[in-house]
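Appendix B, record 7
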Amino acid sequence: MASRPSPEFRSEAVRVELARGLFRKQIAADFGVGFSTLSRWIQQERKNPEKLTAQSELEREVAKLRRENRQLREERDVLN
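Structure tokens (predicted):
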């Protein structure tokens, strides 16, 4: 019988899914867990209001960095 993943492992898998925006199937395969298992972990994380706040802050930060990255690329393209 396989051992249960640690809470840290679960949190990291959920964080990667939320932050990177990759396909859930790919992330599940990368972490060696089933698609439905990862989906269940994500649902459980979203039900936890404390973690939801931290995730929301992380998502806002990612969106801000993506906008900044896009703007810098556009500026670079204009200069070239």
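Remarks on this record: The chain has one domain: 7-79. The mean pLDDT is 82.
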